[in-house]
Amino acid sequence: TVTVVDTTAPVITLFGPSSVSHEIGTAYVDAGATATDIADGDLTSSIVTVGNVDVNTVGTYIVTFNVIDAAGNAAEPVTRTVTVVDTTAPVITLLGPSSVSVEVGYSYTDAGATATDNGDGDLTSSIVSTSDVDTSTVGSYTVTYNVSDAAGNAAAEVTRVVEITP
After folding, report:
1. pLDDT at residue number 10
2. DSSP structure class, residue 61
3. For a tag site, which of 19, 27, 84, 115 has the least CB within 10 Å?
4. Which of these, 43, 145, 148, lies nearest to 96 by C-alpha position?
5. Cβ–Cβ under 8 Å, residues 99 and 165
6. Cβ 120 vs Cβ 150: under 8 Å
């Protein structure tokens, strides 16, 4: 009596690198993997993927690929490390025009600005604005807006010019 047995585990091969960086707030689609077995052939459709990547939270996530052949032999699990990073600066948007004229002696109230970030969302309340506007003196003045996100990415500075006219 000859009994043919399968004691060889399938092999999983990753598509792409085993470690990737991924920008926060963008959809993540894993490159995937293939699985082959000497007895069962292509087992790619039987791969079980374990692990979630939270694209809205900076951090390191592990995605694990597993497969078992028809004889019950488990492949050595293969992992991909996905590091969600925030490298994108916030964006400041002026409310109102970028240039304003005010007659000398009249009051000036700035229209303000908003700020959004792909990771931190609305950063409007974190905007730091500076102004040298003197409505009692004819001249050209600026109001400057700056903000950084939690990852330290600084937005491009935005300015409004305020002309105090006679």
Report:
1. 98
2. E
3. 27
4. 145
5. no
6. yes
- CA 109, distance to chain mean position in Å, is 35
Measured from the Cβ of residue 47, the count of other Cβ atoms closer than 10 Å reads 18
CA distances from 66 to 2, 12, 29, 54 (A): 31, 8, 18, 21
Q: Answer yes or no: is pLDDT of 13 > 90.
A: yes
**Taking CA 98 as the corner, what is the angle to CA 91 and CA 149, rounded to the nearest 5 degrees?**
20
Q: Of 106, 97, 105, which is closest to residue 159 (Cα–Cα)? A: 97
Burial class (CB in 10 A: 0-12, 13-18, 19+), 22: middle
| pTM score | 0.77
User: How does DSSP classify residue 124?
Assistant: G
